[in-house]
Amino acid sequence: MEFFAPHGCFEEERLTGACFSVDATIQTNLQQPAHSDNLNDTVNYQQLYDIVKREMQRPSNLLEHVAGRILQALYEEFNNIDNATVTIRKHNPPLGGKVGDASVTLSK
Questions:
Q1: 46-53 contacts, C-beta under 8 A, 24 or more apart
Q2: Which of 53, 90, 98, 108 is catalytic?
Q3: Is 53 a catalytic residue?
Q4: Which residue ranges form the domains of the chain, and what is each CATH number?
Q5: What is the pLDDT of residues 8-33, one digit of tens each?
Q6: Can you spell out the DSSP letters for 51-105?
Q7: What element of type H or E holds 5?
Q8: Residue 15: its pLDDT value, please?
Q9: pTM of the full predicted structure?
């Protein structure tokens, strides 16, 4: 998922925003939806995207904080998650040199 969002330790970063990528990996038992073909029996990708989008729009100083909020929201919304991992990459971070991205990965 890609977003333009207001995250960073510097006020200018939060004012101007930056480009981010988010990967969310969820482990869950898929036996029921494999047989039922019913969206209510699995993790709804649209709902997952909406959760990530909502949390990405809330400004934070740290990517760790954003990733933690996303994980918390996923567990609150989906009761069938066994494990989840979120990786957030900030593209072209302002570090004083050429850097492709900075990233964090959190699992719960």
A1: 47/77, 47/78, 48/24, 48/74, 48/78, 49/1, 51/77, 52/1, 52/3, 52/22, 52/24, 53/1, 53/3
A2: 90
A3: no
A4: 2-107 (3.30.1130.10)
A5: 888 888 888 999 999 999 999 999 99
A6: HHHHHHTS--S-HHHHHHHHHHHHHHH-TT-SEEEEEEEEES--SSS--SEEEEE
A7: strand 2-5
A8: 84
A9: 0.91
